[in-house]
Amino acid sequence: MARGLLGPLKPLDAREADPERKLRKTLSWPHLIALGIGAIVGTGIYTLTGVGADRAGPAVILSFAIAGAVCACAALAYAEMATLIPTAGSAYTYTYSVIGESIAWIVGWSLILEYSLACSTVAVGWSAYLVGWLQSAGVHLPAALLSGPHGGGIVNLPAVLVALGIAGMLVAGTRESATFNIVLVAIKMVALAVFVAVALPAFSGSNFEPFMPYGFGSHVENGATRGVMAAAAIVFFAFYGFDAVATSAEEARNPGRDLTIGIIGSMAACTLIYMGVAVAAIGAVSYIDLGKSAEPLAYVLRTLQHPFAAWAIGLAALIALPSVILVMMYGQSRIFFVMSRDGLLPRALSRVSARTGSPALVTMVTGVFVAAVAGFFRLDEIAELANAGTLLAFIAVAACMMVLRKRAPELKRVFRCPAPMLVGTLAILGCIYLLVSLPTHTLVRFALWNVLGVVFYLGYGRARSLVRAAA
């Protein structure tokens, strides 16, 4: 067993022999593209468009472009690594095989933030659309059950219920969940196409003046973090999700073909969708008003006196946003699963159901954790902390891709990232810039989370590591 400076290295061609801990190959490329689009197109465009407009004004379109460019570089690195190491675990597994166990643990611990908090963010966004949709129909739910203590309530009950419902669906089986996700993605695409068709005729160039009211760099203004980069650091949440496709590598029938199509195809499609929707939304209403709404697309349509279209968009969001929760919760359960299979988390979590071929226990644990966070925390704070975990994972994957190009250039690569050193460097520098553009309190919480993770690793995981034991 190879050893690196930062702990033992998991073999690049490691395969799990225990049938009780081996995932079943049930997914093809249409499932993977749908998983990618299902994860990427969701809360970012349905709810965070308003948050981004509040931070950057009309220049939020530039924020989307910057975040998308960084993600495109990371996606190319992911595509190469996912086809080279087609096992579950994505960034955690790649780091374990290329850099070493200790850094892999930190990446895996950070991925818990990415996937779990992403699920929670979408659950909170879904709850906001549910409330708006019901209120437009004259139904008013008790305020105490619609927000956590930060909003004067007790718990965000709709967010809790949707998280637990999706967890139950995933326990039923991976292929069934992925097929259902294709239906949700189709609904989502139709809804966004309708929004653009209705909003574009109301486009007004005056809504883009001034284009960059808060400047480019991230800074604090009147107690709020403003600027194009401040918005990019949070709308970045709107672009990731393609890494959940990489997490499915072990369950892909033809990893070389399916993962490449799934990652690159979903990323390209979603970038075009986002730019079109953002231009239509900001062109139709003032960015100041847009930034005040928790359900910005429905708000735009109500403002334009299209109540039925607003109602339909709200309904589509209610139906389709759970697809993001489904994909992200799927990704999180697989990260937990692989860390458990390696011995860094309790081994009981990596048991696979004989009936469905999916890890039922770890999926239920993930669902409870996601529901708890969604029930008691604010959307913007959850999204920012999730972004911190994702950015660290993207940095690790780009670094792994470049290291392997130098260390093992002879390895057969099904997908080869073009200009790997340039693309990898741009991905790392872009992610670092977005990371430092996050609010200070978010970075402090992220650091504390990783301190907690290191303590857990030293006290539990390190001594029980199966890879370390075999080294």
UniProtKB/TrEMBL annotation:
Q: Write out the transmembrane intervals.
A: 29-48, 60-79, 91-108, 115-134, 154-173, 180-203, 223-242, 263-288, 308-331, 360-379, 385-405, 417-436, 442-460
Q: Which domain of life is it from?
A: Bacteria
**InterPro entries, A to Z:** AA/rel_permease1
Q: Keywords, A to Z? A: Membrane, Transmembrane, Transmembrane helix, Transport
- Chief location of this protein? membrane
* Location within or outside the cell: Membrane
Q: How is this protein positioned relative to the membrane?
A: Multi-pass membrane protein
Q: What is this protein called?
A: APA family basic amino acid/polyamine antiporter
Organism of derivation: Sphingomonas endophytica
Its organism's taxonomic lineage begins at: Bacteria, Pseudomonadati, Pseudomonadota, Alphaproteobacteria, Sphingomonadales
